[in-house]
Write a structure and sequence with these properties.
The complex is a heterotrimer of chains A (313), B (305) and C (249). Chain B has helices at residues 2-32, 39-57, 60-81, 91-113, 140-162, 164-174, 176-181, 186-208, 218-233, 238-263, 269-294, and strands at 129-133, 136-139. Chain B has 305 residues and is mainly α. Chain C has helices at 44-52, 74-80, 97-108, 123-136, 151-164, 181-194, 207-213, 231-236, 238-248; strands spanning 6-15, 18-28, 33-38, 59-64, 67-68, 82-85, 169-173, 199-203, 216-221, 224-229. Classes of the chains: A mainly alpha (313), B mainly alpha (305), C alpha/beta (249). Chains in contact: A-B, A-C. The complex binds adenosine-5'-triphosphate and magnesium ion (MG). Magnesium ion binds next to helix 1 of chain C.
């Protein structure tokens, strides 16, 4: 296979991400690792959203709720002195999957804007549940004093170790997503997004496939939330604010809806833009907001679309 | 009992403010098929315009009244420059672009009016309270807000159900193609509807400004509730928006007022306060989810979608 | 005579004040092509939609293979062997012709909960998809996005997708609409061939095709069956002539 420009650029992007700690060491600027780490975790959440939104055609406007559920799973267990990573992450993934499953049971019977609004309302319920959780800090959030512990040699407290762990998870998620969307399940999921009535008439149980995808995406985003909690050593309801869900949508669309690497590109671009623009000017959203409008009005397919013709994925 | 009456009035006030936001949302939604996340920004801009204009004129009433056409013009400008290009686009595009507008306005007010929240001082004659029942005082200003909300709701109902322009708007909300077929200048009608919707949102912001702190992001929480109201009432239905807004306003206020007291039976006081208020906020979203699970098109569906 | 494949009794559907289907009785047997004709708005598509499960009947029963399917969801009916094409072309335009058919083949398996192996690496599926395309005359168009096919090609692909599910009964809603002469001829030949093995319910405005193909014809008028029988009887029916064929001539 001849390497296309897109392939080269994406390989370079992943390589660059892998080299960030080295560059940070050389320049003595540890902050790069923090920045890249945030981008990598958000990329994971964006991949999860893209799975249902890009490939499945379901616009979830409450995806940040899963970040919160994953994060709180870690935070709450840590608060009770349980720092076993397997338990924490298992709970994060399981609880998010369950929440997604239950949300899907209700929301996936609706279409279009009604689906968007139900996903938003459900996320608001999760948000206010965290606000009301007085035992776990309520509105003020919860500081996590111990990192998740998996095996003795893996210390998540070390920022470089943690970064490479996140990057590894991202790579695995990319590989799995790539398999998934091209396997029968993803093929049918994309088919449903393209023409639901046709697939149903062919005999596809549409609801079941959508629900499975929704649950899977919830689980993946819960994992991202567990990582985010370890990254920030802190969880709070603001992780689940509806504007955070908006940010995730922005990342996916900015990068390229329904493309494999689009969410990664979008998350990196989002974090870099946020950083660069806010260095440039305090009120960087004054530029970022109109930029989003222009991205939409220009009608392009996100950054991935800029890399030329064919869609990947 | 006395407390309950006060809370009912508070709930009605919140409900009417929600209606002012939801009326614009539901019309824009129903007629132009636009999901507008920036609607809360117009609410916020109304409040900020009021801050400045009251400052300039030195008169609360004059400033507040002048803020209305200001938001109307802003709304029309936003529609002409940006939003009218989005009507035919996917919901995802609309979400993204109007989210961009929301971010823009949030920072714009920081640049113009500064970081610190602003408050509006009421004139003396509004700072009094009125005895609504013997021995039950209630803020005069809040009563005025309720009255204003009711008057606007009535006016809107009259305009939509009894006038020519209202007929056109209704035609648009129930069938977009018809509007064009009737030979109505669709572009101006859309601008007008959006402008008026913006003005109503702005009015809610203006009326709330003396009660709340005027600050960046103030439109976000109320926007989400207004979206709930819109969907709950049935997209495109002003009547549905009114019923849903009042129900949600009352439910939200009463739940948040009384749930903490109920929870105090089982929880320590401070915990009950936190948990009760949050549970009160959750209830409206639960209500929405349950209602839509049973009636997927909302309470007053305008047409099959 | 053997039990009918499809047995419809008293099927009724109202849309507000309109009676779209009024107590329709109709049977289709295996190996039989049964045509439904009627003027625009007579209720033909509504009838098909109720058989397929997209529209819920107000009254009446639909029995398929001896089983009451009136309340079964769409995909369950498809699994029992009920396939359909749509009046307006209804494909996945961005997917290639092979992929469109492959989706139908996968759907036949009941679910697609396979998460790892590439769907298009499955030789059995792609080979079978190509074979079906070959059968409908689209052998050379397999790799092309469905949306880029000619109108006739898209109609053929519709039928290929339906056939790929290996139906016992095929419902076709105006498959010839908008086709050129040569195109409809080959489609007529295909439908005739298909109807040798399975039941075929054909809604069609092309009277020549209908009278050439159909073993039985049912005529709908404003939702009601006004005549049903072999082509010769329908041709001779006075009411049909007055109401429908007369208008065509
Ligand atoms: N979803 C619906 N809502 C309301 N009325 C409908 C609906 N579907 C069909 N109708 C009405 O029911 C009647 C029958 O329509 P149908 O589409 O079944 O006719 P048809 O025989 O297929 O016509 P054509 O030859 O034009 O395809 C028409 O009057 C139509 O307007
Ligand atoms: Mg028809």
């Amino acid at each position: 296979m001849r390497p296309t420009p897109r392939l080269v650029i994406y390989a370079a992007l992943l390589l660059a991400l892998a080299l960030v700690p080295l560059a940070a060491d050389l320049t003595g600027n540890r902050f790069y690792v923090t920045l890249a780490n945030r981008a990598v975790i958000l990329a994971l959440a964006a991949i999860s959203l893209n799975l249902i939104m890009g490939y499945g055609g379901m616009i979830s406007f409450g995806h940040a709720a899963y970040l919160g559920i994953g994060g709180y799973s870690v935070g709450v267990l840590a608060e009770h002195g349980i720092d076993n990573g397997w338990l924490q992450f298992g709970l994060a993934i399981g609880a998010s999957a369950l929440f997604a499953f239950l949300t899907g049971l209700v929301a996936l019977r609706s279409r279009g804007v009604y689906f968007i609004m139900i996903s938003l309302a459900v996320a608001q319920i999760a948000y206010f549940a965290a606000v009301g959780a007085y035992r776990y800090g309520g509105d003020d959030g919860l500081t996590i004093f111990s990192d998740s512990r998996f095996v003795p040699w893996l210390r998540l407290g070390d920022s470089v170790t943690f970064y490479y762990l996140c990057l590894a998870v991202l790579l695995v998620a990319l590989i799995l997503t790539n398999r998934l969307v091209n396997a029968r399940f993803g093929f049918v999921l994309r088919g449903i997004a393209a023409n639901e009535t046709r697939l149903r008439a062919l005999g596809v149980p549409v609801f079941r496939h959508r629900l499975a995808a929704f649950t899977l995406a919830g689980a993946l985003c819960g994992l991202a939330g567990a990582l985010l909690a370890n990254f920030a050593d802190f969880v709070s309801p603001s992780m689940m604010d509806w504007t955070r869900s908006g940010d995730l949508i922005v990342m996916v669309v900015l990068g390229g809806v329904g493309t494999l690497m689009g969410p990664v590109l979008g998350a990196v671009a989002f974090v870099v833009l946020e950083q660069e623009l806010s260095n440039l000017m305090e009120h960087w959203r004054l530029l970022f907001g109109p930029l989003l409008v222009i991205v939409v009005l220009a009608g392009n397919r996100g950054l991935d679309g800029l890399l030329g013709g064919r869609r990947n994925g | 009992m006395i407390l309950a009456l006060e809370q009912i009035l508070n709930g009605a006030q919140l409900g009417l403010m929600l209606f002012l936001l939801a009326a614009g949302l539901t019309l824009v939604f129903g007629i132009m098929n636009l999901v507008n996340l920036a609607h809360g920004s117009l609410y916020m801009m109304g409040a900020y315009f009021a801050v400045t204009l009251i400052d300039w004129t030195g008169s609360f009433v004059l400033g507040a009244l002048l803020a209305l056409p200001a938001v109307l013009l802003l709304g029309i400008a936003v529609e002409v420059i940006c939003l009218r290009r989005l009507y035919a686009r996917s919901h995802l595009d609309q979400l993204l672009a109007t989210f961009g507008l929301l971010l823009f306005f949030n920072d714009l007010v920081l640049v113009i009016w500064g970081k610190a929240g602003r408050t509006i001082a009421l004139p003396g004659w509004l700072r009094t309270s009125v005895e609504i029942l013997p021995g039950v005082p209630y803020s005069a200003y809040r009563l005025l807000v309720i009255a204003a909300g009711l008057v606007v709701a009535l006016g809107l109902w009259f305009t939509i159900s009894r006038t020519r322009i209202g007929m056109r708007i209704r035609a648009g909300a129930s069938d977009r193609e018809i509007t064009g077929a009737l030979g109505i200048d669709v572009a101006s009608l859309f601008s007008l509807v959006f402008g008026v919707g913006a003005m109503l949102a702005g009015l809610a912001g203006i009326l709330n400004a003396p009660i709340l702190t005027v600050q960046s992001g103030m439109g976000e929480r109320i926007l989400v509730i207004a979206l709930v109201v819109t969907v709950l009432g049935g997209i495109g239905s002003v009547r549905g928006a009114f019923v849903a807004a009042l129900s949600i306003g009352l439910l939200d206020t009463l739940a948040r007022a009384f749930l903490p007291d109920l929870l105090k039976v089982v929880l320590p006081a401070s915990a009950a306060q936190t948990a009760g208020a949050a549970a009160g906020s959750m209830i409206i979203y639960l209500l929405m989810v349950i209602t839509l699970a049973v009636r997927p098109q909302g309470l007053f569906p305008v047409r099959a979608r | 005579m053997a039990d009918p494949l499809l047995q419809v009794r008293g099927l009724t559907k109202h849309f507000g004040g309109i009676v779209a289907n009024d107590a329709i009785d109709l049977d289709v047997h295996a190996g039989e092509l049964h045509a439904v004709i009627g003027a625009n708005g007579a209720g033909k598509s509504t009838f098909i939609a109720q058989l397929g499960g997209d529209v819920a009947p107000d009254a009446g029963t639909i029995r398929f293979l001896g089983r009451d399917i009136s309340r079964l969801p769409v995909h369950r009916r498809a699994h029992l062997g009920l396939a359909r094409t749509f009046q307006t072309v209804n494909l996945l335009p961005a997917f290639s012709a092979v992929e469109n058919v492959a989706l139908a083949l996968i759907a036949r398996d009941g679910h697609a909960f396979r998460f790892w192996r590439r769907a298009t690496d499955d030789c059995r599926v792609t080979a079978e998809a190509r074979a079906v395309l070959d059968r409908v005359g689209l052998a050379d168009a397999g790799h092309r996005p469905a949306g880029t096919l000619s109108h006739g090609g898209q109609r053929q692909l519709e039928i290929a997708m339906a056939l790929a599910t290996r139906p016992r009964l095929l419902l076709c809603d105006e498959p010839m609409a908008g086709l050129g002469l040569g195109e409809s001829d080959s489609l007529i030949a295909l439908l005739a061939e298909v109807a040798r093995d399975i039941g075929l319910l054909l809604v069609e405005h092309d009277m020549q095709a209908v009278f050439a193909l159909a073993r039985r014809i049912t005529v709908l008028d404003r939702g009601r069956v006004i005549a049903s029988g072999p082509p010769a009887a329908i041709r001779a029916d006075a009411e049909v002539q007055r109401l429908y064929l007369g208008a065509e001539a």
